[in-house]
Structure formats: structure tokens, C-alpha cells
Request: fold
Amino acid sequence: MELATQIGGAVTDGLAYLGALATLGGRAAYFTFVAPLRGKPLRLQRAVSQAMQVGVGALPILSLITFFIGLILALQAAYELRKFGAMNYVASAVAISMTRELGPLITAIVVIGRSGSAFAAEIGTMKVTEEIDALETMAINPVHFLVTPKFLAMIVMLPCLTIWANFMGVLGGSLFGVAQANFVFSGYIRASLDALFLRDIVTGLIKSVMFGITITAVGCHEGLSTGAGAEQVGRSTTRAVVVSIFLVILVDLVFTTLFFFVSGA
Reply:
């Protein structure tokens, strides 16, 4: 009975946590898309500032990581395809792997490490120093003021970063393709484009939007849930990273399964 009680408590806590994330995400979506139509202006300046931090700031490290991942994918694909004399399919393997799966996923993990943790630390520090209470005292909704700009920045910038990550992955694969698989650069790019269908790119972009919503909800929720003391800020930041990675993988699984059964891809 004790084991069943522990399992039941864990399931209940998990569902309550997901409910809190859904509530926070729903409120942020309301302030982003509905409230401006009812006279509550969107804080575009803060959203642009967040977009610069989330998107432009992540480009150097994201470019480097995805370039190397594209090169690794090409090496791994060639290892097997060489046995069947099918080295010309290296470009296709890299392009499809990056656009459908690895591009959005690696982008999300990089953004979690850079921005998801920063969201939790920033809001957690404001909670500890009672700045959240000060906002409420001034009749400023913390979700509208703090979460909505981050929400808007993430749902705009994650797809943009994903497109860039896909490009850099293909570029990394082309390094091997030109050096070892007898491609010319233009031929490698053409082979990559020929292997892709619109649904391959669109499914990756849909995933990236959902990843952005998930990362924002978790980071901001952990920040708003921070307890008293500086130590709690560190715990909230760590928890935000761990939970975000887990939920991003879970969301990836759900949408990959959905796309598989809907489109047969």
C-alpha cells in the first residue's frame, strides 16, 4: 500500500505541475494574442529585447554545435551506406535527420541552457527580493509584465533558430560530402533539397514552437515558485533546466507519434 501511495502521490504531483504549466502558458497566450484586442498593449519593446537575448545571442554556439552534429551525422551515415555502395544518400540522411528531429531538438536544448535557466534565475531573484510583490502592489500583473514578452520572443525565435540550425547541419554534412563522398558543394545542397518535402520542414517548425512554449512555461513557473533565500534561486534554476529537457523530449515524442499516424511520415 505504501508503494501504491507513493506512486499515486507522484502521479498527482506531476499532473498538478502540468496543470500549473498549462495555466501559466494559457495566461501568457491570452496576454499575447487576446488582451491587445481589448486595450491592454503588448510590451513589444521588452519582447524585442528578449528576442535579441534568446535568438541573436544563441547564434554563435548554436551554429557551432549544429555544424559539428551535421558532420557527425554524415560520418555515421557514410559508415553504413558505404557497405551498400550508397554514399550518394549521405546528403539525404543528414537533411532529413536535421529538419525532422535534430535541428529542433538541439536548438531547444541550447536555448534551455541559455534562456530557460535565465528565465528561472531572473524571476526567482525578483521573487526573493520581493519585486514580484512590488509589481502586484502597483497593480501590474506579473504574468503580463514578465512572462508575456518571454513567451512572444520564444515562439518567434525558436522556429527562426531551428531553420538556422537545419542550415548549419546541412552545411556541416557538406564538408564530409565534398571531402569524401565525391560531391561538389552545389550538388550536395541540391541533393539535400531534393530529399526534403515541405512536411519535413513544417513538422520541425511546429515542434520548435511547442518547445518554445514549454521552455518558457517551465522557466517562468519555476521562477515564480521560488522559495525564500538565495539558495532557492539556484535550485529553481537547476530544476527548470532538468524539467525543461524532460518535457521537451516528451513533447517531441508526442508530436513525432502524432505526425507519424496523421501523415504516415
